[in-house]
Write a structure and sequence with these properties.
single chain; alpha/beta; five-stranded parallel beta sheet; 8 helices; 5 strands
Amino acid sequence: MNVYFSGIIGSGKTTLGLRLAELLERQFLDLDQHMDRILGYSFHKLVQEQGWLAFRELEYSLCKDFSRRRNAIIALGGGTIRYEWNRDILKGTGTIIHIDTPPDVLIERVRKADRPRVHASTTLEEDVHRIWTESGHKYLEAADIVYETARKSLAEEIRELQKIIITLL
């Protein structure tokens, strides 16, 4: 079975997934990075030129591919789990761990990364809060495990998540 990390943009899915995959000697896949490799350019450009629908269609295709993998640790995109078709294709193919990160931490991380807004006409703060208000229940409902970071150090998060994942193996 796979381990999928979900969470709002900036929650640490890639950082945690990569480190845990190395520790547990598992394949690591990151949806956003995988998408960039397929496109040959940043998915940000895809969103700018073709819109979010084109992005979501490619995202769904990647979820289908990921669902056929075995024993991988996979960082989903920040919005992947908000869409029923993605949740349906991933269901039963692994454990979904939602990385629950405080909004102010998300905002600080995303500000540094300069990512495209889901709600283009909003500030970063408004965008993050709106995503959680509108879709937070989807992240929580899809999760088999909700892991709260609660301002822990990266080392603590890795240690705790490693213990959780080992119990799943």
